[in-house]
Batch of 3 targets.
Target 1
Amino acid sequence: MKRIVTAAILIAFVFALIFFGQLWMITLVAALVAELAIWEYLQLANHAAHTSGHPTRLPAWWMLAGAALLFVTSLPNWPLEAQLPVLSALTFVLFAWNGFRIPLDRVLPDTAQGLFGLIYIAYPLTLVPLLWKQEDGPALVLFLMVCVWCGDIAALYIGKNFGRRKLAPSISPNKTWEGSLASIAGSVLAAGMVLVVSEQLTARGNTALHITEPVWQSLLLAVVLNVAAQIGDLLESAIKRGVGVKDSGTMLPGHGGILDRIDALLLAAPVLWYALLLKDYLGLGRF
């Protein structure tokens, strides 16, 4: 019951934010989620270091400030290309901090862990407000969320009740091929429903869910996003399994941690961004 109630509250909040929020609200919420997920990432890194007998000295101030700065560079008054030099500068700051303050055998692994944390968590979440502010951005973000959520729900239900063949037993023993295929089908079905609703609303003059790309492109995009989401889920499971923990945290009742809930989104959002760039480059039109 906790899982259902938590999910219902989160879904209602995200829907309201997508359609009634402002860019600054979406940026602020995405940044807050990133900060909480990075805090969990730090705990995972510390747990792994403690288990291995090599304590990490990754500074929390650098991780949290670095994530916030990446979101600042995603604001409209900053050029989009500013993120890379800012990320590079942050890396050199951490490199220098580690080089003069920690044992030399920890300089490379701790610096790499810090850079990875920002690229893995903060950067993908900065893309959410960037996607939202695109033309027909609310529909784009909703499409992304629906593909991720419905795929996850289908995988959970079918995998739990009908799953037989293990998908990646060394990483996530409970995931099955049956659940994976059901996840793809769930995302495609959900995408189709979004397209139907979009068509009905547009016919009535409501462009809140306006989608212009051909149906086959939308359904293909749903498959691509689902595969990316599943891989993102598995990769976060690999991190947790390597560290030796079941959940990234306990912030969300019935769901574990923040990182557990956004692991699929962390790969699906960049894939959607890259897909849009590719569509633009090939002249395939907008979403």
Target 2
Amino acid sequence: MVVQKVVTPRSDAPGALAAMSEGLHVRTVPYAGETPYEERLAQELNDCDWVCLAGYMKLIPTSVLTSHKGRILNIHPALLPKFGGKGMYGMHVHEAVIEAHETESGCTVHFVTEEYDEGEIILQASCEVNIDDSPEDLAARVLRLEHDTYYRALKKVVDGTRS
């Protein structure tokens, strides 16, 4: 698998900066502009076989979902369906997991739909939540899982081995 390009609404996003440091082609499509965002995003993704979201905080426009049906993935820093949905992102997720006294957390790669975090689950990976974990401790542990899990999930769907 080869990353063709990285599309971001903000050129200073951590993923965009990491991609640039690796020499990848990064395109910025800000939310505001003369042409509607949905049209500019659709144009930028037009030649992409697969779309992998990471840290993207908005719902994907319906026209993009339609044109890339079954080919848009996202990763969530929790074991869905728990701790998903609107407002459940970043440190909010890890705080909620700890406050709920969960003994396990992890990450979920899923297909993107019209609703936050409700698409079919492709792959999950879990880790222990320690009694003395801070949200930052848990976030670091989950992030390590996310890198490997996202790659394995994408390989699974690209190879056609999803169940």
Target 3
Amino acid sequence: MIRHPERVELACNENPLGPSPRVIAAAQAELSRIHRYPEAGASSLRRSLAEHLRVSEEEVIVGNGASELLELLVRAICTGPQRAVFAEPSFVIYRLACLAHGVPFTEVALDGYVHDLSAMARAVSPGTGLVFIANPNNPTGTYVGRKALGAFLSSVPREVFVVLDEAYAEYADAPDFVSGLELRREHPNAIVVRTFSKIHGLAGLRLGYAVMPRELAESVHRVRAPFTVSSVAHAAGLAALRDREHVERSRALNRSERAFMQAGLSELGLRVVPSQANFLLVDVARPAAAVGEALLAQGVLVRSLPALRTMLRISVGTRPENERCLAALQAVLT
């Protein structure tokens, strides 16, 4: 994708601060060695992640973005007639991975933009092998709390794996938000998938990781291609894990600017779905695709959603970017 230097990019939920200087230095240092293949199995990064997450190295897998890992889980788990269950709308990769591998699936409509876990539990049948829950959810930014998520996991048979896609978990600050890393202690069928693309600002390097039972991790390793994580991404990931200050700066910026955007959009008379992520879902009360095109003409790129015809997904940027977005949106709507 060609980036326009004067365009405000608020369509892909990226970290507007970018990666930390320590990450850039580590990536640049690795460039002199890119004629060599990456470290097999990304063992150094897996070991660092295991220490960081307080799990065993055998439970950790890294991949070419979280998307690769989500697809690998479909391939490894749904090897027979097993079905998958996920919400709609949610992260599009769930549907694409199932379609690519001929896995039947059941989509469960959201309830007020939030995962309807009761309906999803009812959709789990004896033939279900895999459930996806994006928490917080993309594209709505909503979340399910500790009590509801714990109850859902307790209701699902242990042989059904539940993937908790936590790409935006580092941005969540609701008091009852809980990570699957904590829940998996009581629910061994819970799998946690995360990414370096968001809070760490490494979207262009494609780096994700997952924590799962070691037996399943072994199965995933058997069906994956070698060297899918580049040596540059590997070095950048190691540096990103060590720079907690950058994570905190990114989290603090998102918290303040998300509130700023929520208030600004509300002042324009727009309904905004409360978000726990680094983006906001906004109802513009008219065909959103046309509004998105008009914003693009003013140099502001946001995301329109075919499944939500009057909704725009707007990433949280820096204060100048957010102010420009609000001004452009006001001009377009009036």
